Amino acid sequence: MGLDAGLCTHFVYGFTKVTPSFNIVSNDPFADHPSGDENQDGLCPAVCNDPDFTPDWSDPSSPKCDWPCSPGRTMKGFEGMNVAMKQRSPGIKTLVSVGGWNFNNCAASPGETYGQGSATCELFSQLAASEEKTNIFAQNVITFARKWGFDGFDLDWEYPVVAGHNSNSQPFQDVTQDYANYILLLKRLKTAFAEENAAEPLLLTAAVGVGKSTAEKAYNIPEMNKYLDLINLMTYDMHGSWEDRTGCNAPLHATQEDIDFAGYPLSVQWAVDYWIDQGASPDKLTMGVGTYGRGFALAQASESGYLAPAVGASAPAASTGQAGYIAYYEIVAMIEEGVAVKHYDEARACPYIVTTSGDWVGYDDVRSMKAKAAWAKSKGLRGTMVWALDLDDFEGRYSGGVRYPLIRALADGWAEGSSPPAGMLSSSGHQERAKRLHR
Q1: Can you tell me whether residue 353 is helix, strand or coil?
Q2: Minimal CB count within 10 Å: which of 103, 111, 169, 403?
Q3: How far apart are CA 118 and CA 107, in angstroms?
Q4: Average pLDDT over residues 255-266
């Protein structure tokens, strides 16, 4: 998608799915495998990556590079990330991710849960509760990562203990066991990775919720800190149309009004400080940022400021097509077309727009991204984590021709006065999952 690979140091590919036998497989072979061949079981031979390769037809053992490994193919999916991107920027690390908001959704049909369905909606709980199943899963993760060229594995369990959309059916009715079992899962994965390759073990990272109730109930933070290489804070979705007042997707700071509304200073600053205070090492933390906004329908046009009364979600935008959820490129297009007026909340360091149709959308722009990078740098964090590449203005259509302006703003913010951090991480995905982190 025209991304300068040097803007980020880590890329997370989301999401693969897990079978009932705890194997990890592609969620969409057409998108993930070279030329969409669902039967392919690993990267093409390296010689087939040369567009000028000519097979030696007289030698039966010579690679022929037939479809789907034709030398002239366009690299996409796993291969686009792990071959093409690494050719452009050899120092990057790539991770494959399992999980997401819908992964444990027992109420959804199989087609709505990344292929999981109700039969395996408690799969994370099952894994974590069993040493045998975790060991099977760990070996399957290793096999998958090695054959497709990934450098690590990212666990996106939303969330141990408190995932409200988990089933309460037997035998996993008492999900409080997730609190201890989550740590055992991380420990066993870390051990298996080290035993497989002590010199270059697979990286182990996790995306974690940051709302106060979630963090308190779900995570033993000091123990997580022992086993994870990166802890990726999902410091976004702090406000959204599930509330009856407007609020930015991810305000950097909180005001007294915010404290009165949420009961605590819900903000990026609070979440980062909480994790550090509870035992997370700053040099393992990445601060999540979103390249999208959360939108509301205003209750009345006369009240359109921060924490204004709202009555549901903003209208779906043309591309993302989901009420209350708008990509950055859609937001800046609305401003350019004159159907939205931009405001910037200085106290919270976040922008928002009010549309002519009565919608309110809080998001991040170039200015707030730079402010966040500067603040994260001042806290000694490892970097920033982005959700997601395809929600930025990736063509630069509304940013003066500058592609990925938000990700570039982060890179610029980190680079001012020093080199970019090793832990700057960008997460890519092709399906959106609502994460109501403060619930």
Answers
A1: strand
A2: 111
A3: 7
A4: 96
Q: Which one of 158, 243, 330, 432 is the catalytic residue?
A: 158
Q: How many CB atoms lie within 10 A of CB 389?
A: 20
Say if CB 24 and CB 16 are below 8 A apart: yes
Name the residue with tokens 């999902």.
Answer: 234
Quick one: pLDDT band at residue 162, thresholds 50, 70, 90?
A: confident
Average pLDDT, the chain: 89
pLDDT at 176: 85
Domain extent for 390: 5-290+364-429
**Lowest-confidence segment of 179-183, 193-197, 298-302, 417-421 by average pLDDT:** 417-421
Number of domains in the chain: 1
pLDDT at res. 163 = 64
Are 300 and 283 a contacting pair, CB within 8 Å? no
Residue 300 lies in a domain: no
Residue 334 belongs to a domain: no
Max intra-chain CA distance, the chain? 79
Q: Is 401 exposed, middle or buried (CB count within 10 Å of its CB: 0-12, 13-18, 19+)?
A: exposed
Q: Kindly state the tokens that stand for 208.
A: 């974690």
Annotation marks residue 158 as catalytic: yes
Is the residue at 407 inside a domain? yes
Q: What is the CATH number of the domain that holds 160?
A: 3.20.20.80
351 within domain boundaries:
no
